[in-house]
Amino acid sequence: MSNTESLVLVPGLMCDEAVWEHQIAALGAGRDIQVAGHGLCDSLGAMAERILEKAAPRFALAGH
Fold first, then answer.
1. Does the N-terminal or the C-terminal CB of the chain have fewer CB atoms within 10 Å?
2. Sign of the dihedral through C-alpha 21, 37, 14, 47
3. Do the beta carbons of residue 59 and residue 6 sit within 8 Å?
4. pTM (2 decimals)?
């Protein structure tokens, strides 16, 4: 098991990973950072399921 902290960043519905550029640069050292992609999800529930499928078993979440 890895001791690396995992962080999932969730952009707003009309945004992409570019909105997290500065946070990734500042927080990236020693962390596994993923930016959630909403893909073709058509509901908030589907978006949440997609995030949980791709995330580590234990993670921090930040979004807007």
1. N
2. negative
3. yes
4. 0.85
